[in-house]
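Explain this one:

_____
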Amino acid sequence: MTNVIRLVDADGTDQRHITAEITSTGDLLLSGQDLGPLVREVWGDSDYEYWLTVPASEKDRVLLMLLEIAYAGDEQAVNKLREALDSRGIPCKFDSYA
């Protein structure tokens, strides 16, 4: 499994590329690069690069926040998350009382 995913790959007159990764120290790193005429107009350079780093110690809080954003109020949250995990080959265990 790779520790890097591509979130955005927008190619056109202006381009934007954003990746998310787990670094060797366990931090969550989102990094982006914008290219094109708008970047030159705004920044006076050919590209604009930026980073957002969340320390490894805060990843669990980020996970819970993202789950809340994605599934709050959704009565099918467990099923949808389980399907998403399965589709990406991420192991999980589902149990229930019958």
In short: The first strand starts at residue 4 and ends at 10. The CA atoms of residues 24 and 47 lie 26 Å apart.
